[in-house]
Amino acid sequence: MASPKPAHADDLAKQQRSISVAEFFEKNKHLLGFDSPTRGIVTTVKEAIDNALDACEEAGVLPDIYLGIFQMEGDIFKVVVEDNGPGIVPENIPYVFGKLLYGSRFHQIRQSRGQQGIGISAAVLYAQLTSGRPTLVISRCGSDRPAFRFLVQIKTETNEPEILKREETTWDRVHGTRIEIEFKSSLTARKRLIEYLRYTSVVNPHARIRVEIDGEAILFDRASDEPIIPPQAILPHPHGVELGELKRIAAGSKEPLEPFLINSFSRVGQKTAHEIIQLAGLKETTKANKLDADGLARLQSAMQQVKVPPPPANQCLSPIGEVLIRQGLEKEFQFDFCSARTRPASVYHGHPFIVEAALGYGGKLDAEGNARIMRFANRVPLMYQQGACAITGCISAVNWRTYNISQSGLPTGPVLILVHVASTNVPFTSESKDAIASIPEIEREITLALQELGRDLKTFLSRRDKSRLSEERARAICAIIPEIATKVAETIEKPVPDITPIEGQIMRRLVTKKWTDNGTVNVSIQNYTSHALDLTLYLITPDDVSTADPPAVFVEEMGTDKSAVWQMRLAGGENWQLRYTGTGNGMIDIRGVDEKKKVVVDLDRS
Ligand SMILES: Nc1ncnc2c1ncn2[C@@H]1O[C@H](COP(=O)(O)OP(=O)(O)OP(=O)(O)O)[C@@H](O)[C@H]1O
């Protein structure tokens, strides 16, 4: 066989042409999370729901989202997502859905679920590739505006939208957006889809998501009626600016260097701007757009060296918060123990970020196998590539045995670990946004949060184990007391005494340390020798306190804890005993607070 003729540069030149981004991703759809029909449905739902949540958040409304998944003919599925967000103006609808890399978030420095402007258009591309069908969009921007209905797809050769239909329509929503996308898929990923929605609901406790999937209705209701305060965009931080970026920003400014630095970067005031210019050896009067390559390089280097306060994280980030994380988790899971941490804001490469984490233990969690891990970035669940994610790496690197949890790489047993990384720029390992890259600053924060939670769990477990031990001991003693009483009575030739009160005493001592199933707990307040206090006693347990005798106890919500509260006057040296009954397991914590004197006393429960 003749060997192929070597190509000449002229031959190659005939084949060389630019490639549109749509063509590129059509060929490389796995890079956007569309590797298979099964995965395609999860990614499509995720992109649409993330956009709906972002839009509602930006408009300051509580999200009311509808998701429908219907099997059409054969292996064609239709995904419908409807939101009550601000809507999209009709002029922009074709671009939002019919052009890759078009969006409102890419150039803004603030936390948002979407970042690149590629998510929903990639779903449209995937749909037309696998089913050949365009995407239907209905959107309305207010009661005084008509709703518009579009049929749109992407011209892959140019990455430009193709409008197949545009018409005014009637729609009962005053504002919002509805999309209908049809593509080849299957419902093999049903479990993962539900898991995605469940996890989304945990970290978005303000959202209500109504789901209709293959004829089954599921409601993920909101646990909080507080809309999220939308994070505000900030200017780039001087420590995170690369030379190319600085060149672009400077080219667009006719200002002299001092106002240029102050107006273009966050946390730069007059003093800092002056220091940067001095260190770079530049003149204050030089206009930013007149800097040559050397001047720009010196300016960029000086910007990295001068001390600048960290970016204003409170403004541009929106962490979930410890109380809401616990509320969200407890809404979906029931634990014996749950603790959450929101770490202080930190910075990597000039990008602010906050790590939040929670640890749930026991309850209905699986006692066998690895811990359940829930990973989130900017309130979006990360559903794939767990092994490639820095969060998983940090969880495995913590020595969980120190906290009395078994471990084989990952912790094992009835444990749930949630980690949320919120940032203005989440460093994903790829465009499919499945895993967070190993950035040392982020890993450090995750590890610290996990260690804090580990310590909380250890305290809980050791208290619980102590209670169990003393219960076992007391039961063992009670079991042999009748025998001892008989033997002693025989030896001293006296009648066998009634030992019921002694048994009672031992068991009471036992139950003072534990909140038992349908048990009675006695609490003594002892050795208080100070002045009299008008105490409000707070009994805090993870479970309900149902009745009390005496005095009357009522149940009140304190955060996510249930607490029984009652009033009493305690004089110096007095010894009180309180009895209450209830159900459930868990530790009890009793504190007395004199509201007027602002005194808090820990009460002796032994
Ligand atoms: N339901 C919606 N309501 C209002 N605006 C929307 C909605 N969906 C999308 N948009 C607008 O369209 C833009 C493009 O959305 P797209 O999903 O392609 O990208 P993104 O969400 O910005 O980023 P990413 O590619 O990371 O998902 C968004 O930035 C937003 O401005």
Automatic annotation (TrEMBL):
One of its GO terms (molecular function) is ATP binding. It holds the Pfam family Topo-VIb_trans. Residues 36-158 form the Histidine kinase/HSP90-like ATPase domain. Keywords: ATP-binding, DNA-binding, Isomerase, Nucleotide-binding, Topoisomerase. This is Type 2 DNA topoisomerase 6 subunit B. The gene is top6B. It catalyses: ATP-dependent breakage, passage and rejoining of double-stranded DNA. ATP binds at N51, D83, S104, R105, G114, Q115, Q116, G117, I118, G119, I120, S121, K433. Relaxes both positive and negative superturns and exhibits a strong decatenase activity. One of its GO terms (biological process) is DNA replication. It comes from Methanospirillum hungatei JF-1 (strain ATCC 27890 / DSM 864 / NBRC 100397 / JF-1). The lineage of its organism: Archaea, Methanobacteriati, Methanobacteriota, Stenosarchaea group, Methanomicrobia. Belongs to the TOP6B family. Its EC number is 5.6.2.2. NCBIfam families: PRK04184.1, top6b. PANTHER family: DNA TOPOISOMERASE 6 SUBUNIT B.
